[in-house]
Each structure stands twice: as C-alpha cells, then as structure tokens.
C-alpha cells in the first residue's frame, strides 16, 4: 500500500478546474478503494474494482483513472510507486468504461434488436411461410417429406432400420380405408400412409402427402371408425398443407431457402423437421380446420364422426386435456370441446352405417405390424 498520501490531480467533471487531492488506499465497505481527500470536503471513495484507465491522453502526467459508470470525473496519479500499487490491486483497469448514457443506448438498441427479431419470428416468417407453402411445387414438398420420414425413423431407432409395418393383409385393409376416405378428394399429391411399429399413441402428417400412424394408436382404438376419424384429420392437414407451413416456420430462413431452391439435405431437415413433425403443434385455426375437414369427409363417405369424439375422450381420460405421450393429438388443448364438436357434426347414426372395414379386415389392420 502507499507509504503515505499521494498528491494527485482531480477533475470533478463539472468544470475545467484542477483540484489537488490526497489519495491513499483504504478498506471501504469491506473492499479495497482509493480514498480521495479534498480540503473542506467529505472524502470520495473509488472501489478498485470499478477503476478504469484512460489511455491516449495528450499529456503523460501519470496514470489517468475514471470510475466506471460515474460520469466524467478524472483522477491523475503521478508515475511511481502509487501507480504500481494501483495496477496490482485494480483488475479491471483495461476494461472499457461504460457510461450510463452509453448503457442506456445499448439497452435501447438491444431492445430494438430483440423487438425486430420477435417481429421476424412471430409475424414476418409466419406470413412468408403461409404464402410460400402455397407456391412450392408439390414435387419439392414430396422430396422434403421423403427426407423427413427417413430422418424420423433414424431419430426413433438410432439406426438405418425401417419402422414401416408391411403385413400384406394389414396393408390391404389400410388401403381400403384410405380409398374410402379419399374418394373424389382433390389432394395436390399422391397420399402415402404408413404404419410405424411403435407403441406411441400418435399420428402425424409430413409434407408432400405423407401420413404416419403409429401401431399404438391402432391398438388403442376400439373400432376402425376411430382410426378413420384420426386419419381423416391428418388428411385434412395434408389438404391444407399445414405440415409444410409448420416446417417452414420451424426451420426459419434456412428452411425457406431450402424449400425454394430444393436443398433438402441440410441439417435443418434432420433436427427441426423430425422433432416438430412428430410432436406437431399447429395453430388452433389449423387444428379446427383439420377437424372440420375430417367431419366433412366422414359425412361424405357415410361414416359417423362420433367415434372420432370417442377417441378424443380416451386421450383426455388417459393423458389429461393438455398433454400426452409425445402425441400431438393429445397435446392440443380442449380435447373435450373437440370431442363434442365431432359428435355434433355426425350426420350418420352409429347404429346404421356401412362399416369402413369388416371385422376380419379390422383384425388384419390391428395385426399390420405382426
């Protein structure tokens, strides 16, 4: 420490007047500080952690100090032992002083930047995604869908194996269900429905007309009409191109560029598309639109939509109204309301309709994964 007080020059930042002061190192509030004593004034205390050195001064009279964030006051300590001590006990001398006015500017511009990012993510990108989803050629969507399906299988298995169930009788029963649900439908691409060998109670749509149903959903259903209602819902997402919108929004600018220019091999498809499509979370309007589409399809094909409501009730009873086993069917809120809407939309009695599958075909579908 200083052997005695050191005489230094002090500028208070309010005037150009030089104040000759005595400076020594002391302990202030449990931390080392410089005590600055002026005649007839209370002492000032500058914590050594807050000391900053001002360089490139016109006159080299000594070390020029400033207290970080405390205006324009300056302290000039002559070169010598006092300067050496100050350099030893002041670890932040070389840090750039941050003025309060500068801090306010940084906060202002930082807030502006955050608001801009939020505007891009929450307003501009969704609007661009919705518009681009209607402009992307179906063949490019199909290419993205094929890539996404491969990545989903890899994501779930951790290998190159396939999850797709291929029992011939089960596939034949599934094809019969699809044919009835899509008869006369104006879907922009060929529909490709697969059953994955997994106990997850789930189904989701992938860009390009691809729909995946998990064997766990089939096993959890009591009738083929319950499966048909879920499948019709996913076909509604396909018809409205919701998976493409979701992919574009999730992947952001990388996804938009990839979709526009046909680059489907990038990392965005591996992680973003895989996770978001399996655990899809569409806007409420998209969910309502897919439900309404399903109600219309079931009505047109002479099937009741009440079993679709029964299935929603099962999910609600098992998982609650707002979460499920990675199932986006169960993760959407208001399952009770959707179940009621399905029953209200039913134009066919549950006791008088042509079953979508025979009892034997239903058993074949339930055994599609062996």
Please describe the topology of this protein.
Layout: E1 6-11, E2 19-28, E3 31-37, E4 44-47, E5 51-54, E6 62-67, E7 74-78, H1 81-89, H2 100-133, H3 138-157, H4 168-182, E8 192-196, E9 203-206, E10 210-214, H5 215-220, H6 224-239, H7 242-261, H8 267-278, H9 284-300, H10 306-319, H11 328-331, H12 335-345, H13 359-366
Parallel strand pairs: 8-10
Antiparallel strand pairs: 1-2, 1-7, 2-3, 3-4, 5-6, 6-7, 9-10
Largest sheet: 7 strands, antiparallel
Task: Show unreliable segments.
Answer: 117-122, 253-257, 259-273, 323-328
Q: Strand order, main sheet: write it out.
A: 4-3-2-1-7-6-5
The succession of helices and strands, N to C, reads EEEEEEEHHHHEEEHHHHHHHHH
Share of helix, binned: 40-55%
- Rounded mean pLDDT is 79
Task: Please report the total strand number as a whole number.
Answer: 10
Shape: rod-shaped
Q: What distance separates the N and C termini?
A: 84 Å
Using only C-alpha atoms, the radius of gyration works out to 35 Å
Class from secondary-structure proportions? alpha+beta
User: What is the count of DSSP helices, taking H or I runs of 4+ residues?
Assistant: 13
Residue share in β-strands: 15-25%
Q: How many discrete domains?
A: 3
């Amino acid at each position: 420490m200083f052997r005695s007080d050191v005489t230094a020059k002090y500028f208070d930042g309010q005037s150009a007047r030089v104040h000759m002061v005595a400076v020594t190192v002391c302990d202030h509030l449990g931390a080392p500080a410089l005590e600055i004593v002026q005649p007839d004034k209370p002492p000032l205390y500058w914590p050594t952690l807050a000391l900053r050195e001002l360089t490139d001064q016109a006159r080299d009279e000594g070390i020029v100090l400033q207290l970080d964030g405390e205006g324009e006051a300056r302290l000039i300590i002559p070169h010598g032992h006092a300067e050496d001590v100050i350099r030893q006990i002041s670890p932040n001398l070389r840090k750039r002083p941050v003025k309060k006015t500068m801090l306010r500017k940084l906060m202002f511009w930082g807030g502006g930047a955050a608001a801009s990012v939020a505007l891009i993510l929450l307003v501009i990108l969704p609007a661009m995604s919705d518009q681009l989803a209607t402009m992307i050629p179906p063949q490019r969507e199909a290419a993205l869908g094929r890539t996404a399906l491969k990545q989903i299988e890899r994501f779930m298995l951790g290998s190159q194996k396939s999850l797709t169930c291929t029992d011939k009788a089960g596939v034949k029963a599934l094809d019969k269900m699809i044919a009835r649900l899509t008869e006369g439908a104006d879907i922009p691409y060929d529909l490709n429905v697969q059953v994955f060998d997994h106990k997850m109670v789930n189904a989701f749509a992938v860009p390009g007309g691809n729909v995946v149903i998990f064997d766990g959903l089939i096993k959890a259903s009591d009738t083929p009409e319950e499966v048909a209602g879920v499948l019709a819902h996913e076909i509604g997402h396909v018809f409205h191109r919701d998976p493409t919108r979701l992919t574009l929004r999730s992947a952001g600018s990388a996804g938009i560029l990839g979709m526009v220019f046909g680059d489907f091999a990038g990392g965005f498809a591996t992680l973003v598309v895989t996770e978001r499509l399996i655990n899809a979370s569409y806007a409420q309007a998209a969910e309502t639109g897919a439900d309404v589409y399903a109600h219309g399809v079931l009505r047109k094909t002479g099937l009741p939509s009440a079993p679709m409501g029964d299935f929603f009730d099962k999910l609600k009873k098992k998982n609650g109204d707002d979460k499920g086993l990675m199932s986006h069917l169960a993760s959407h809120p208001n399952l009770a309301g959707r179940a009621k809407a399905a029953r209200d939309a039913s134009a066919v009695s549950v006791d008088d309709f042509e079953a979508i599958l025979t009892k034997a075909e239903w058993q074949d579908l339930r055994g599609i994964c062996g």
